[in-house]
Amino acid sequence: MHKTHNNSKQRKAVLEAIRSTDTHPSVRWIHEQVKTKLPGISLGTIYRNIKVCREEGSVVSVGVVNNEERFDGIVEPHPHAVCTKCGRIIDIDDLPEAENIHLSGFTVDKRRTVFYGTCVQCCRAGKNLLAQFGRLRKGFSHN
Amino acid sequence: MHKTHNNSKQRKAVLEAIRSTDTHPSVRWIHEQVKTKLPGISLGTIYRNIKVCREEGSVVSVGVVNNEERFDGIVEPHPHAVCTKCGRIIDIDDLPEAENIHLSGFTVDKRRTVFYGTCVQCCRAGKNLLAQFGRLRKGFSHN
DNA sequence: GTGCTTGCAAACGCTTTGCAAGAGT
DNA sequence: ACTCTTGCAAAGCGTTTGCAAGCAC
Asked: Where does Fe cation bind (chains A, B) (predicted)?
């Protein structure tokens, strides 16, 4: 049931790289970073290890910016600020209340709140059954 | 300066399709929907018209769910709920305060707030100059 | 005619995956 | 041995784009 993991040096390096920064890095950044320590590491290995880390809960995705998924080693949910010019993602730990904050110089254009969870239809349906089905690439049809 | 738009029937149909639903449709959905009225319309045209509509401000993106960008004809920012099982995106107009809401049956797992705007570095830099540069696909490097 | 728009198909870019070889226990 | 993991390369898939033809004014 519980998969035993080898905890290869590659996996450790990936997790370490993600935890070493607060820039919410992309796969490309992580790859470049890890390559300085393990020059031979391949992109596929980065992807696969990020996936494992996410399943383990040691890494979360903070969304897609400019076509690249961005990751965080701080897994506790917290607000972020995304610069629409350069793509920087900044942690916002002490959530300000006004719309027009200027947190450390960050000027807010718009604010988006997203709740993640389970909708009525999926709540009703058998959990495991629909869960698997719904996660299939082409399976779902958001109607 | 101000581009004159033809407002082709294709463009109208795309905008109409997006406005016809509250499901925050994907390109695929929009294409299928518009094809029932304009069977010959191509995917590229859907993409190009969505782009124009976004630049005009008549359509906004509400994010990427399961690899597909999702759009909204209601351009005023408002919170959304994303079902992690089936990918549904639901409008939340009356924002509840607690974490454990059960709005119309939607059970919240986690909540994410994202601010979009301009970071210090980009604020300092000349607006137009860096703005263009920063938006380039490969140009930026979120450090 | 001029400039915006379209359909088509090819290209792009990020991500995933099949496979045979390698590592860890 | 057995299982997990890796590097490589190819494939997948959503999205973008070059181009010649079409449309609207």
From this structure: 97
- The segment(s) of chain A belonging to CATH 3.30.1490.190 are 77-143
Cβ–Cβ contact B29 with A under 8 A = yes
pTM of the complete model: 0.86
In terms of CATH architecture, what is A8-75? Orthogonal Bundle (1.10)
Mean pLDDT to the nearest integer, B91-117: 80
pLDDT of A136 > 50? The answer is no
Q: In the 8-state DSSP scheme, what is residue B26?
A: B
CATH 1.10.10.10 occupies which residues in chain B? 8-75
A117, B140: Cβ pair inside 8 Å?
Answer: no
Joined tokens for residue B43: 């995917």
CATH number 3.30.1490.190 given to A77-143: yes
Q: Strand C proximity: list residues 18-57 of A with CB under 7 Å.
A: 26-28, 43-44, 47-48, 51
Has residue B130 got a pLDDT over 90?
Answer: no
Shortest distance between the Cα of A88 and any Cα of chain B, in A, equals: 5
Q: Is B35 left (phi over 0), alpha (psi -120 to 50) or beta?
A: alpha
pLDDT at B134: 44
What gap in Å lies between CA A82 and CA A66, rounded to an integer?
Answer: 11
- For residues B121 and B64, give the distance between their C-alpha atoms in angstroms, rounded to a whole number: 26
Q: To probe the interface with A, which of B32, B54, B85, B143 has the most A CB atoms within 10 Å?
A: B85
User: Chain B, 37-76: which have a CB under 8 Å from a chain A CB?
Assistant: 62-67, 70
